[in-house]
Amino acid sequence: MKSQKVRDLDDLELRRQLAEMEEQLFRLHFQMSMGQMDGLKKVRSMRKVRARIFTVLRERELAGAGQAQPAPGAKK
Length: 76
Fold this sequence. Notes:
Blueprint lengths: L2 H6 L2 H23 L7 H28 L8
Helix pairs in contact: 2-3
């Protein structure tokens, strides 16, 4: 999933996708430990998408916090 597609989703959808991804990663790691899966390509790509989602959520959190509170030393 590209970063622009991640940015287009709302927070609720991002969190839902994150939960699904956590479950898939758990299953893939389990398969790898049992020797059933050969490649790491899918795991690596999922980790990157997961990091993108966390980044977008954090950016939105910081943007929301910045708008809600005035800067220190600012006049009202």
